[in-house]
Specification:
Blueprint lengths: L20 H8 L3 E5 L2 E4 L1 H20 L3 E2 L5 E3 H7 L1 H4 L5 E4 L5 E4 L4 H11 L8 E10 L14 E11 L2 H21 L4 E5 L10 E7 L5 E5 L6 E3 H7 L23 H8 L6 E9 L2 E8 L6 E4 L10 E4 H8 L4 E3 L10 E3 L1 H6 E7 L40 E15 L1 H6 L2 E3 L5 E3 L1 E8 H11 L1 E2 L2 E2 L10 E5 L6 H16 L4 E4 L5 H10 L4 E5 L1 H6 L2 E5 L6 E3 L1 H8 L1
Parallel strand pairs: 3-7, 26-27, 26-28
Antiparallel strand pairs: 1-2, 4-6, 5-6, 7-8, 8-23, 9-10, 10-20, 11-12, 11-20, 13-14, 13-19, 14-15, 15-16, 17-18, 20-23, 21-22, 24-25, 28-29, 29-30
Bound molecules: adenosine-5'-triphosphate and magnesium ion (3 copies).
Subcellular location: Cytoplasm
Catalytic activity: tRNA(Pro) + L-proline + ATP = L-prolyl-tRNA(Pro) + AMP + diphosphate
Subunit structure: Homodimer.
Length: about 575
């Protein structure tokens, strides 16, 4: 590729609304442009990177025996009624009508469609096991799209779905997918962990998330360097022995019906005058509903909360100092989310542990007005108010737990018979008996990986691509091409030779001065830079610098090819 014929559009300024490094750098490098909330155009540069990721994912899926297909992104309501998810999926499901007033959704995932495909296509156990995959655009109406393509509304996913006669067969494919995912993220040059994940509402027997380790990650992880133990925090909490630490300070007030409590009732229980209540937040979790009642300002001066059944005797007022003293950490805080009620949500140990969704309301209506918020709404910064803390012995006893943060880039699941049963997907076994199939599902966030890689690998000058993801491996930069045709020619011939040797190379023939040209190449993260100059030609060398080198050096043509080979 010649850059003069490409559309490279870098910008110097750090975009004001981009909070994390990957988002800033993707905008500065001109990889993505925002169309609307959670919707991004991938520029030619951005797309080159995403295609590289896609290719690695595809190769490893095929190597692991999966077969590629493509399903529609628009899906009919009827299928989602069959699985029971038309209502249950919640606000992330974007629903629409066609001209005949028929209901559809834009697919956030494809269990229904693939199960429908399988029940029509698969008749006999002899056809099994099968693992179908696609690389396809999903839409989820995320409550809080942010960080650019990291949490977008429209994004590219690789999703795979396997079909089996027996649970044992499902386990085999699940293990193969675990291996394939490990190979994918290793090939992509990412530091990652496969963590044990809760199967939660989806049910099933096993689930692992693949997490790219990064401070900006939205997920909390517990892992050990000395042992293979690794789990996401929900799972780690679920397994932690109960009662070892002080009870969560805010997992306190239980309510049966989340949406119809009056604010009077809540404040009466808590003993806080209604006019002093700034916010009341109900959090529903596995152990029922809890309420948090805030006084003071957004800095969380006071949290008043209580277990409903034991009220009012057990209510206690906890100041930030109390929380700090009891747990060694300050409570986390979530800023306003863009809902009509616009309630900041406090996240503390209990919420992080328990919340399946949050309900919020304020005192303006006198009744408490509740809305079910997506699970995602609760997470901004989860305070480390946990049952599992740094330094705990890992459950296998072989190491100590370290808490870290991660970006979920892949997720594998043993679904069991949930969808096949609900939708009647069966095959005949060797006795001629109809048997419901077992299923697994396996997702990779292809577009999210691009952002995750940058989050993990960048410096002040810009992106540092792993070789496998770089838009080009090598940049050939020409110094002063207009005044020195010999230099332009030499660069052109080097570019041709590298390309012919199968080395993905870009020729920077834009005629920029060295400073801005080098800055661009660093910003867009090209792993290897070769400079062709008049002086170099005289000496019979090129100037070479790896993106991670601190200094450039002069190398001969042969040495260069050896280096890049
Ligand atoms: P998250 O917890 O981040 O919301 P998820 O658990 O809802 O993700 P899955 O249903 O497991 O996501 O989907 C498979 C993969 O798709 C995820 O592991 C992630 O990499 C990617 N993904 C999910 N939601 C988004 C999004 N809004 N933007 C970009 N990628 C996403
Ligand atoms: Mg999600
Ligand atoms: Mg998740
Ligand atoms: Mg997931």
């Amino acid at each position: 590729m010649r850059l003069s014929k490409f559309h490279l559009a870098t910008v110097k300024e750090v975009p004001a609304d981009a909070e994390i490094a990957s988002h800033q750098l993707m905008l500065r490098a001109g990889m993505i442009r925002k169309l609307a909330s959670g919707l991004y155009t991938w520029s030619p540069l951005g797309l080159r990177v995403m295609r590289k990721v896609e290719q690695v994912v595809r190769e490893e899926m095929v190597r692991a025996g999966a077969v590629e297909m493509l399903m529609p992104s628009v899906q009919p309501r009827e299928l989602w009624e069959e699985s029971g998810r038309w209502e249950k999926f919640g606000g992330q499901l974007l629903k629409m009508k066609d001209r005949k007033e028929q209901d559809y959704c834009y697919g956030p995932t494809h269990e229904e469609v693939v199960t429908d495909f399988a029940r029509n296509e698969l008749k006999s156990y002899k056809q099994l096991p099968l693992n179908f995959f696609q690389i396809q655009t999903k839409f989820r109406d995320e409550i809080r799209p942010r960080f650019g393509v990291m949490r977008a509304r429209e994004f590219l996913m690789k999703d795979a779905y396997s079909f089996h006669l027996t649970p044992e067969s499902l386990c085999e494919t699940y293990d193969a997918m675990y291996e394939a995912y490990s190979r994918i993220f290793t090939r992509l040059g990412l530091a990652f962990r496969a963590v044990d994940a809760d199967t939660g509402a989806i049910g099933g027997s096993a689930s692992h998330e693949f997490q790219v380790l990064a401070e900006a990650g939205e997920d909390a992880l517990a892992f050990s360097d000395a042992s293979p133990y690794a789990a996401n925090i929900e799972k780690a909490e679920a397994l932690a022995p109960a009662g070892e630490r002080p009870a969560p300070l805010a997992a306190l007030m239980r309510v049966d019906t989340p949406t119809q409590r009056s604010i009077d009732e809540v404040t009466a229980f808590l003993g806080v005058p209604a006019n002093q209540v700034l916010k009341t937040i109900l959090v529903r979790g596995r152990e029922g509903l809890v309420a948090l009642c805030l006084r003071g300002d957004h800095e969380l001066n006071e949290v008043k909360a209580a277990h409903l059944p034991e009220l009012p005797g057990e209510s206690e007022l906890a100041s930030e100092a109390d929380i700090l003293a009891a747990t060694g950490t300050r409570p986390g805080f979530i800023g306003p989310v863009g809902l009509p009620t616009s309630i900041p949500v406090i996240v503390d140990r209990s919420a992080a542990l328990l919340a399946d969704f949050v309900c919020g309301g304020n005192q303006e209506g006198m009744h408490y007005t509740g809305a079910n918020w997506e699970r995602d709404a609760r997470i901004d910064r989860v305070a480390d108010l946990r049952n599992v803390v740094d330094g705990d012995l890992s459950p296998d006893g072989k190491g100590h737990i370290r808490l870290g943060r991660g970006i979920e880039v892949g997720h594998i699941f043993q679904l069991g018979q949930k969808y096949a049963e609900a939708m009647g997907a069966g095959v005949l076994d060797d006795q001629g008996k109809m048997r419901t199939m077992y299923m697994g599902c396996y997702g990779v966030g292809v577009s999210r990986i691009v952002a995750a890689a940058i989050e993990q690998r960048h410096d002040d000058a810009g992106i540092i691509w792993p070789e496998a993801m770089a838009p080009w491996r090598v940049a050939v930069c020409i110094i002063n091409p207009k005044n020195d045709p010999a230099v332009a020619e030499a660069a052109e011939s080097l570019y041709q030779a590298l390309s012919q040797a199968g080395i993905d190379t870009v020729l920077d023939d834009r005629g920029l001065r060295p400073g801005p040209m080098f800055a661009d190449m660093e910003l867009i993260g090209i792993p290897h830079r070769v400079v062709v100059s008049g002086r170099g030609l005289e000496a019979g060398t090129f100037e070479y610098r790896a993106r991670t080198d601190t200094e450039a050096r002069n190398v001969t043509r042969e040495a260069l090819f050896t280096l890049l080979g």
